[in-house]
Amino acid sequence: MPRDSMTSLIEKIARKANVTFKNCGSSTNGSNEVFLENQGELRNLLTEIRAADLKITPRKIKSSSKSQSHSPPVTYMHICETTVFSMGVFLLKPGASIPLHDHPGMNGMLKVLYGKVRIGCFDKLDNPPGAESEIQFNPPLLPNQKESLRRSIHRSIGEYTEESGPCILTPLKDNLHQIDAIEGPAAFLDILAPPYDPDDGRDCHYYKVLQTVSGNADKNAGQQEQEETWLLKIPQPDDFWCGAEPYPGPVVSF
């Protein structure tokens, strides 16, 4: 029997991700024809993947307990990582959120394996000189916070299930996002290319959406789409941390 017919779906995804992103620099913005063709094939493979393919069983909603309250809201199953890309599974408890964060110079693809998530995506915009001095925020910013301001636009918000296609981010489009588990626990397969690497300028930064004095309501990653807004870079929120657990699925090697 030919080897390819014996290859697991997750290994096919890994191989295609390696081909897709191997010669993909951080400047890629979906303009390269070969890249787009490979990305489309990778998207099709990801659309097929299910939790059962990775031997992952959807988590049941457990009653709250002291031990549960002190366990991480999000855990990560590492599958593989190279200099080209990283791949793993994030598992979110009911109501858990991965706060608004960025992926500097990175491409990404996210495919829900079970449950439902809401994803709000933002694009960073250039800050015109002195623009922040013309905006009044509520509450007012501290003087040392102004250097951490980032003008942005809320690109999209959507709900994804295992039947949905993958959510895609690029270095310039939908590069910041917040992910919320809704209606129960959820899990998604995550591919980032290249992987996070603080030594190479790819550290993860967290943000919060600011409200201006003219704003009529509190805003967050679920605000109105295509609305220009301001973000403030913040430390990792105290109520968010990510634990680790073993990956039970097929071995990936290539």
Multimeric state of these chains?
single chain
Q: What is the residue-averaged pLDDT?
A: 88
Number of strands: 10
Q: Structural class of the helices, strands and pairings?
A: alpha+beta
Helix content: 10-25%
Describe what this molecule looks like in 3D.
It is a single chain. The chain is of the alpha+beta class. The chain has helices at residues 3-6, 9-21, 33-48, 66-69; strands at residues 74-81, 86-92, 97-101, 107-124, 149-160, 167-169, 176-193, 206-209, 228-234, 242-244. Strand 1 (74-81) and strand 2 form a beta hairpin. Helix 2 runs antiparallel to helix 3 (33-48). The two termini are 19 Å apart.
Briefly, what is this?
With 254 residues, the protein is α+β, with helices and mostly antiparallel strands. It has four helices and ten strands. Strands 1, 2, 3, 4, 5, 6, 7, 8, 9 and 10 form a ten-stranded mixed sheet that branches.
Q: Can you tag this structure with a few keywords?
A:
254 residues, alpha+beta, ten-stranded mixed β-sheet, 33% strand, globular
What is the secondary structure topology, with strand pairs?
Elements: H1 3-6, H2 9-21, H3 33-48, H4 66-69, E1 74-81, E2 86-92, E3 97-101, E4 107-124, E5 149-160, E6 167-169, E7 176-193, E8 206-209, E9 228-234, E10 242-244
Parallel strand pairs: 1-10
Antiparallel strand pairs: 1-2, 2-7, 3-7, 4-5, 4-6, 4-7, 5-9, 8-9
